[in-house]
Write a structure and sequence with these properties.
single chain, 9 helices
Length: 173
């Protein structure tokens, strides 16, 4: 059986195929549906590769250089170049998702803070968990830092976070 090659399809069929994918994506209504859909559609490694692209886009938008991103995220230059090209050509998709992710993170923090106030000091707060396990919350931490940077040019905070993530990843290895 031969490999499927999208470039061998006529242009009209390619457009229809991509349109069907966009229609399928637009049917996803919430996080649980997205989790189920992507769990069935993609392998864990494919999902991780997509998340890495989002992380690279976050840092590129914040103005970081290729070397800093390579060190902070342990990604190759090719991936950074590809994401940079996407941001230069279009980029509105990345920017929209980053903006929405930021809102989601803020809402989660509000809910968690409310829950902590109701429970008292019995459990660690989301903020303390994010600080204690930065690699587990890397995407959320990056979204937080990008939000700060966009609001008050807190680039120094992001640099500190990258430096912290470098030290943490060296300890893990």
């Amino acid at each position: 059986m031969g490999r499927f090659r999208v470039e061998k399809l006529p242009k009209e069929e390619r457009i229809k195929l991509v349109g069907e994918f966009y229609d399928a994506m637009s049917c996803v209504k919430n996080r649980e549906e997205a989790r189920s859909f992507f769990r069935d559609l993609l392998s864990f490694d494919e999902i991780a590769m997509l998340v890495r692209r989002i992380q690279v886009a976050l840092l590129l938008i914040a103005g970081y250089g290729y070397r800093d991103i390579e060190k902070a995220l342990n990604v190759g230059g090719d991936k950074i170049i590809n994401v940079q090209r996407s941001l230069q050509r279009h980029g509105e998709g990345y920017r929209l998702m980053i903006q929405r992710l930021r809102k989601i993170v803020k809402e989660k923090e509000k809910r968690e803070n409310k829950r902590q106030r109701e429970l008292g000091n019995g459990y660690p707060s989301l903020q303390s968990l994010k600080k204690r396990y930065p690699m587990h919350f890397l995407l959320f931490n990056l979204v937080d830092e990008i939000g700060d940077w966009l609001q008050d040019d807190g680039k120094v905070k992001i640099e500190r976070k990258i430096e912290f993530n470098k030290r943490t990843s060296k300890k893990i290895q």
